[in-house]
Design a protein that fits this description.
Elements (H helix, E strand, L loop, with lengths): L1 E2 L1 H35 L3 H41 L9 E2 L2 H28 L1
Antiparallel strand pairs: 1-2
Helix pairs in contact: 1-2, 1-3, 2-3
Amino acid sequence: MKDTISHIHAMCKDWTRELTFYKSEIPFFKRQLGEIAKDYTSKDILAKVDHFENKFYIMSNHFDELLHDVKLKEESILNKAAQKPKYINVKMIEMDGKIEDLMEFTARDFRETKKEFYQFLSKYL
């Protein structure tokens, strides 16, 4: 399916804001994990703390990689806009479904992880 340069540019901006928000949440989550780790010594609880620390580390790296990919996509779109300024609102570019799929996965994974994390916090904070 073809899309316009302006629409793809807007999507890149939205994705950047979304990923930046997700990334900004991670330090808050880590501080809460630190509170639990200092208050509890049970191996089961510390294993869950370790699980979430690892998950947040992996997610943070994933956000960085995806932000980089979105930035490259946006730069490509801006180059096309500069080359063909009269065609900014004409559907002429094949949309890359890969980034869209990754963003959908990332949003779903973030929501599910956050829900699981808050359920964990509700038991121990």
